[in-house]
Amino acid sequence: MGAAAAEAKGDEVLVEHGGKTYVLPSPLDYPVDVVFAENDFEAVRVVLGEAQWQEYRKARPTIRDFQDFNRKINEASGN
Asked: With 67 labelled, which of 5, 22, 44, 53 sits at a CA distance of 20 to 30 A?
Protein backbone atom coordinates (compact mmCIF):
# COMPACT_ATOMS: atom_id res chain seq x y z
CA MET A 1 0.00 0.00 0.00
CA GLY A 2 1.33 3.43 -0.90
CA ALA A 3 1.97 6.21 1.59
CA ALA A 4 -1.06 8.22 0.47
CA ALA A 5 -3.39 5.25 0.83
CA ALA A 6 -1.99 4.41 4.26
CA GLU A 7 -2.43 8.01 5.35
CA ALA A 8 -6.01 8.16 4.10
CA LYS A 9 -6.90 4.95 5.93
CA GLY A 10 -4.94 5.82 9.06
CA ASP A 11 -2.79 2.71 8.73
CA GLU A 12 0.51 2.41 10.55
CA VAL A 13 3.65 2.79 8.46
CA LEU A 14 6.47 0.25 8.72
CA VAL A 15 10.07 1.31 8.17
CA GLU A 16 12.87 -1.24 7.90
CA HIS A 17 16.26 -0.01 9.01
CA GLY A 18 19.36 -1.62 10.43
CA GLY A 19 17.71 -5.03 10.61
CA LYS A 20 14.78 -3.73 12.65
CA THR A 21 11.22 -2.80 11.78
CA TYR A 22 9.96 0.48 13.19
CA VAL A 23 6.22 1.10 13.44
CA LEU A 24 5.09 4.68 12.84
CA PRO A 25 1.62 6.10 13.03
CA SER A 26 -0.05 7.38 9.91
CA PRO A 27 1.27 10.93 9.31
CA LEU A 28 -2.12 12.42 10.20
CA ASP A 29 -1.88 10.59 13.53
CA TYR A 30 1.59 11.91 14.44
CA PRO A 31 1.69 13.55 17.86
CA VAL A 32 1.11 17.29 17.47
CA ASP A 33 4.48 17.90 19.15
CA VAL A 34 6.14 17.03 15.85
CA VAL A 35 5.25 20.49 14.52
CA PHE A 36 7.23 22.06 17.36
CA ALA A 37 10.37 20.01 16.65
CA GLU A 38 13.28 22.32 15.97
CA ASN A 39 15.27 19.81 13.93
CA ASP A 40 15.05 16.42 12.24
CA PHE A 41 16.36 14.60 15.31
CA GLU A 42 13.56 15.93 17.49
CA ALA A 43 10.96 15.21 14.80
CA VAL A 44 12.05 11.60 14.37
CA ARG A 45 12.13 11.12 18.14
CA VAL A 46 8.54 12.36 18.44
CA VAL A 47 7.32 10.25 15.53
CA LEU A 48 9.04 7.08 16.75
CA GLY A 49 8.06 7.51 20.37
CA GLU A 50 10.54 7.23 23.21
CA ALA A 51 10.79 3.41 23.29
CA GLN A 52 11.60 3.04 19.59
CA TRP A 53 13.92 6.07 19.67
CA GLN A 54 15.92 4.48 22.50
CA GLU A 55 16.01 1.19 20.58
CA TYR A 56 17.40 3.04 17.54
CA ARG A 57 19.99 4.81 19.71
CA LYS A 58 21.24 1.49 21.12
CA ALA A 59 22.85 0.83 17.74
CA ARG A 60 25.01 3.95 18.21
CA PRO A 61 24.04 5.38 14.81
CA THR A 62 26.17 7.86 12.93
CA ILE A 63 24.92 11.06 11.34
CA ARG A 64 25.06 9.28 7.97
CA ASP A 65 22.93 6.45 9.34
CA PHE A 66 20.44 8.90 10.81
CA GLN A 67 20.15 10.71 7.48
CA ASP A 68 19.37 7.40 5.77
CA PHE A 69 16.83 6.47 8.45
CA ASN A 70 15.17 9.89 8.24
CA ARG A 71 14.98 9.57 4.45
CA LYS A 72 13.28 6.18 4.78
CA ILE A 73 10.78 7.58 7.27
CA ASN A 74 9.98 10.52 5.00
CA GLU A 75 9.57 8.30 1.93
CA ALA A 76 7.40 5.78 3.77
CA SER A 77 5.25 8.61 5.13
CA GLY A 78 4.86 10.28 1.75
CA ASN A 79 6.93 13.36 2.59
From this structure: 5
